[in-house]
């Protein structure tokens, strides 16, 4: 497993956004991780949408794939997330708690974050690998 998929990558894939198929196919071949934080964000989006049942089915189908590993958020990830946000805030930079916790999950599991959010680039200084598509 090489990648931890950020929430926006999964959402755009589920919506059929052009250009993601090849990168996601690569991730599927190698297997990829989904943080329990990302899963919570996906469920939040599903429940506030107009198509709750469809979106819940899509999420269930995705996390049910054998190539997908759900990575639970625990004590080690919490400490890494607190360190990230603390060090960034001390330097006068902000990062949403959700993104920090996803990044912490990637760091602890030694995975590359696959994302469309350019602000993840500033996390490479903490040893977090990021690939922006």
Provide an overview of this structure.
The chain has 133 residues and is α/β, with parallel strands linked by helices. The protein has a single domain, classed as Rossmann fold (3-Layer(aba) Sandwich). Helix content is 53%, strand content 14%. It contains six helices and five strands. A five-stranded parallel β-sheet has the order 3-2-1-4-5. The chain is globular. The two termini are 18 Å apart.
Secondary-structure blueprint:
Blueprint: E1 3-5, H1 7-14, H2 21-30, E2 32-35, H3 36-47, H4 52-63, E3 68-71, H5 75-90, H6 97-108, E4 112-115, E5 129-132
Parallel strand pairs: 1-2, 1-4, 2-3, 4-5
* Count of β-strands: 5
Query: Roughly how much helix do the residues carry, as a percent range?
Result: 40-55%
How many domain regions? 1
Low-pLDDT residue intervals, each spanning 5 or more residues: none
Q: Helix and strand succession?
A: EHHEHHEHHEE
Secondary-structure class? alpha/beta
Average per-residue pLDDT, rounded, comes to 90
Based on the structure given, which CATH architecture is correct?
3-Layer(aba) Sandwich
- Fourth-level CATH superfamily: 5'-nuclease
Largest sheet: 5 strands, parallel
* CATH class type: Alpha Beta
Terminal Cα span: 18 Å
Determine Rg (CA atoms, Å): 14 Å
By CATH, the topology is Rossmann fold
Strand percentage? 5-15%
The largest beta-sheet arranges its strands as 3-2-1-4-5
Tell me, what's the shape? Answer: globular
Number of helices: 6
């Amino acid at each position: 497993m090489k990648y931890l998929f950020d929430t926006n990558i999964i959402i755009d894939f589920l919506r059929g956004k052009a250009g993601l198929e090849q990168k996601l196919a690569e991730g599927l071949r190698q297997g990829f991780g989904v943080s329990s934080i990302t899963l919570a964000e996906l469920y939040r989006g599903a429940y506030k949408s107009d198509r709750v049942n469809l979106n819940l089915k899509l999420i269930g189908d995705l996390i049910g794939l054998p190539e997908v590993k759900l990575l639970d958020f625990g004590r080690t990830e919490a400490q890494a997330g607190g360190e990230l946000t603390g060090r960034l805030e001390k330097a006068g930079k902000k990062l949403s708690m959700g993104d920090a916790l996803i990044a912490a999950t990637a760091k602890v599991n030694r995975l590359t974050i696959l994302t469309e959010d350019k602000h993840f680039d500033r996390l490479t200084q903490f040893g977090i690998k990021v690939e922006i598509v």
